[in-house]
């Protein structure tokens, strides 16, 4: 069988570079083109130095894109929605890693992103590209949305509790995300200047982070609330010293007294057969709970939990690499689903230790 | 007037070293002795290399301590309580930086530390050494307890809201603390091994952290609940890449709809005249909210807040240097109160930027 | 063809863990046993958390090792030499990653390691396991030595200049190595305690580092000086903030005035066809020269050079991951040579960017 | 006696901010104005957040500068030379922290900086502002130049050996500097973008660094070579993960066999009475040699050495904080000399440990 021809638009950013790295080594894929408005004509490795000696591809101009089997869009938020009809003429399957098609409801979009969505007629078609929740839909999908990196960790960490109906929705859901610098992208600026960013513990979005909307949508689905979770969701984000990685700490209040065995059962049933989810909860050692640093380059989402029975509270921790399971790796996993491939194809790197 | 003669017990640890550094440059203090069981006979600077060329003091044996005006105890938790009667014969004023005398209630102590307190008869005498809350008591105190580093940040950040009666105590208080490696002390071990600790985002205590007890006690006092806050307190702690510093992010739910002006007024009234508390809340720039890294070596606690009016929620952020305002610096400030000195004496270093 | 059966002795350390990770994903290898004196009975992933969900292997006791096709020794220096006869009864091919068999001359060994070598009769048999210099010998070898991590970077960086006879050996060779914390191993201690090691720029071995001996031996061979290079070799090592990685900066003085084209030709001829060596020397960008951080997990050694024509001096820079090309990765590459496999088998991970 | 009125031009950069911090707490100085072309009208603490609550000063426009007693210029290289006549009308004493007046010889300037010096007639007047070498001249000086941060560490580390005539000048002097990110200034850019700069070990200037010229000039003076040292000086610079700090490792070859006692004597004689130089050379412990990280905020230059007797080689290590002893701290020390004050005034902060 011939290889899947894949092209990337917006290939000079971090997500685009990560996708290129993954697809170069993917056993069933051939990269046909990587477009970049700003870097057209230059070698990929001039921007992504880890690809030196591994590929001779040069960036092409976006207007020179040719038809292919799957098109990955790694454009800034707001850039792809208006052009989506055009992109869909180029490929029968499109995966958009921006935020433009994450929310199915134009109301929810408007509330969190401001302004009218530029292509509301496509919202219903787009599938939220999280295989663990939407595997069946992905196998049929022609338009798939990437997922927010912090949203992915939060949703994967919390989904089993919501699906099992354990959560007291009268109480708030509090999610605190710690995140590395690569999530802010490849463009330098004051907030990424090393003397200021190094060693920072910076509350950059204590309230109102847009990834909240994805939690509200996806956890709502699990609760049969199609207009979004009605529970109060308090999401805050803090930048920490790390390039790649996210740790989400979520405080969930339960509607009944349970013991830890119930939690183990709920998580094992949800994730026992998932190739990229590991339950991490050990009695001893330094890595008792999910730790993002050992996930750099891997597609795992590690999930742990701790019960505070007296307070009917569970603390859920979920870790991932924001450029992998939080972006490019997850997109490749979604692509594997869309094409009926082994879901782990091209995604086997396990992460390093120590690192 | 002659200088205050101060001695330190347990001077080879991080808190002891920081105290020594502060007292060496304190205009009203003379260090008479620094005791260390393990380092007796060695120069201070052999353990604290920043003190090279600044002092010729050597550690003495604990049993060789002589009378002085104020004795600082920097011993492991549990070590000072049983010996306190002895230490009080050496000095009319004792400041114990361990956790042994932080809790006034032996019940609360037993619940959080396990086992009977070894000197319950002294619990009533000890003052929780946070000048911003107990200034008047400190001026009379002979036995003062240091404060927990994460507790200090949390309590200072939250006190104005509790004192003003703004908090909905039917809802949980969720506090997530991010903390540097020096808080775990000077003894090497698996959890501080650099290849593992570097770049870590490690949930080391998702539930049940002992510093919770200090919040329960001190916020309870502010609410007229002498047995401790009855509200549910969900405190979790995450180690991040940083040597010195804490950032606490607290989610508080309010019992009425308020606007931001109310919060400004409440915080300004509480802290407008405090020398070591700064309200940090700016519209632009990289340092819009408290950032622990620029506090290294300073005694400031920086506090910020952001209102989520729709959810009747405030996110409070508080940052400090765990060895300064979270330990030794705060102890010197307390000492200044006890001796009627200018509270800022010896504590003027403003912190560095960039760093 | 059946898979190569490989076993690891000393599998709980960093090199052993890295080897296990590589061999688990090696297409031609099956790990039969991983021995550890201290961890026997425990799961591999209890020590190497990146291997969770990837293998169910447990550590066995060293005395329970069974015959296999190739045995990797990851023991502390001095531990394998005395036991080598025993290990060779277990496998027809042994790769010893300790320093015990790096030096062919017992005199050189004695000068740099002190004391008599415990198995001098085997020194002649052992091949210095650097494929770029000893590929032909490796294909016949039954006893192969791993290479020192800083020595590997230095030798690979300098070999082309020495082989070409460009170096003025009347002048000193000055090599300054910058190195991450994982090179000091998995055992915690005062020098790896995070509050002290974090952000350090520590001259831990300004003179007399044992890796010098490998330079003297290997560069000597290239100059036809079988007793070792007669030139003065000044090697110093500085620990920097990094977990994995080495950058070596070498100052070489030339015996004639040359221009940069000569250098390009010499390096291209030496390494143009090497799968794991990249010449990195660009006119612009942030990654103009070798940078170890983007090599974490990869088996590349990146090499760059800059000519100071006026001073007849070349500065050579070489970067690698000390656990990969500096240890386990290079050992797998050597194994591939020994078994006549594609040299890149199991070693294709390209490294991450950003990271 | 009234306070010295000091003003700063170029106060929004890192050196300007550090100077402001030091002068705010200097017992004999009053800051009258801080000028900034880009920030005029804004509060100092909007740019230097560590100065919050410590000063209400706002930046003024450079054209609004008033006469004062001493004017500090913290402008980019090349900006002050052409304006120097103007600045000297504003203050009887000017300290220029740029590189414009570091070199006394216009030939040397032209060779290293390219182009004609814009004010050659002033070169003879300017004093190289290193108190340890030019204390007497400083007490008379009206125009003083700041010193290059890496040059300062190198010169202070090497001066005793050169002055004592121990160096074999037929052999090269090799100096390798490791340096933190703050040395590149406050302007963000690709090379300071956190995901790329974090954890970097980057050879940014393997040959030809301009600080070489200062070594050539100042070590030349000590050898009676007024046109500059004739020895070959090989200086290379590597950026490492650190915000503040420099470690210089210098390899010096000696013209005779000496023992370590000679070195101790030479260094003790040179620096025994210097307030800001410490000889750091210990037999045990983690801080056996100079370590820049514990110098952050301090004005110390720590110097160590190790003799390789067999090779007649000394490795000299020198560490300092590039913004303190490498820039602003040293400038204040020079100012203290110029005004006949205690040289340590305003410079007593000892640095932190751990940090």
From TrEMBL, chains A, B, C, D:
It comes from the Bacteria. The active site is at 149. Pfam families: Semialdhyde_dh, Semialdhyde_dhC_1. Residues 185-205 are annotated as: Disordered. InterPro entries: AGPR, AGPR_dimerisation_dom, AGPR_type-1, LysY, NAD(P)-bd_dom_sf, Semialdehyde_DH_NAD-bd. One of its GO terms (molecular function) is NAD binding. It is an enzyme of class 1 (oxidoreductase). Its EC number is 1.2.1.103. Keywords: Amino-acid biosynthesis, Cytoplasm, Lysine biosynthesis, NADP, Oxidoreductase. SUPFAM superfamilies: Glyceraldehyde-3-phosphate dehydrogenase-like, C-terminal domain, NAD(P)-binding Rossmann-fold domains. Residues 5-141 form the Semialdehyde dehydrogenase NAD-binding domain. Transmembrane segments: none annotated. Pathway: Amino-acid biosynthesis; L-lysine biosynthesis via AAA pathway; L-lysine from L-alpha-aminoadipate (Thermus route): step 3/5. One of its GO terms (biological process) is lysine biosynthetic process via aminoadipic acid. Catalyzes the NADPH-dependent reduction of [LysW]-aminoadipate 6-phosphate to yield [LysW]-aminoadipate 6-semialdehyde. NCBIfam families: argC. PANTHER family: [LYSW]-L-2-AMINOADIPATE_[LYSW]-L-GLUTAMATE PHOSPHATE REDUCTASE-RELATED, N-ACETYL-GAMMA-GLUTAMYL-PHOSPHATE REDUCTASE, CHLOROPLASTIC-RELATED-RELATED. This is Putative [LysW]-L-2-aminoadipate 6-phosphate reductase. It comes from Thermosporothrix hazakensis. The gene is lysY.
């Amino acid at each position: 069988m011939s290889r899947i021809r894949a092209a990337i638009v917006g290939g000079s950013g971090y997500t685009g570079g990560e996708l290129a790295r993954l697809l170069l080594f993917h056993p069933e894929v051939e990269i046909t083109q990587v477009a970049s408005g700003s870097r057209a004509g230059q070698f990929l490795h001039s921007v992504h130095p880890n690809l030196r000696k591994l590929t001779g591809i040069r960036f092409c101009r976006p207007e020179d894109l040719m038809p292919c089997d799957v098109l990955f869009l790694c454009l800034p938020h707001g850039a792809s929605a208006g052009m989506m009809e055009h992109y869909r003429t180029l490929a029968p399957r499109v995966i958009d890693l921006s935020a433009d098609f994450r929310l199915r409801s134009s109301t929810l979009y408007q509330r969190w992103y401001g302004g009218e969505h530029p292509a509301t007629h496509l919202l219903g078609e787009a599938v939220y590209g999280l295989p663990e929740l939407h595997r069946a839909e992905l196998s049929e999908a022609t338009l798939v949305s990437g997922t927010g990196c912090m949203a992915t960790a939060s949703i994967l960490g919390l989904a089993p509790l919501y699906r099992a109906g354990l959560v007291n929705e009268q109480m708030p859901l509090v999610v605190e995300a710690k995140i590395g610098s690569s999530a802010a992208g490849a463009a330098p600026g004051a907030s990424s200047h090393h003397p200021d960013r190094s060693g920072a513990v910076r509350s950059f979005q204590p309230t109102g982070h847009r990834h909240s909307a994805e939690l509200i949508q996806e956890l709502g689905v699990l609760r049969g609330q199609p207009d979004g979770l009605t529970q109060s969701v308090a999401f805050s984000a803090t930048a920490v010293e790390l390039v790649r990685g996210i740790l989400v700490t979520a405080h969930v209040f339960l509607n009944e007294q349970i013991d830890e065995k119930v939690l183990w059962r709920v998580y094992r049933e949800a994730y026992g057969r998932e190739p990229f989810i590991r339950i991490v909860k050990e009695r001893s050692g330094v890595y008792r709970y999910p730790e993002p640093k050992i996930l750099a380059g891997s597609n795992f989402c590690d999930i742990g939990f701790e019960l505070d029975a007296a307070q009917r509270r569970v603390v859920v921790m979920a870790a991932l690499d924001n450029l992998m399971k939080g972006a490019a790796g997850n997109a490749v996993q979604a692509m594997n689903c869309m094409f009926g491939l082994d879901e782990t194809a091209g995604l086997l790197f396990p992460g390093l230790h120590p690192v």
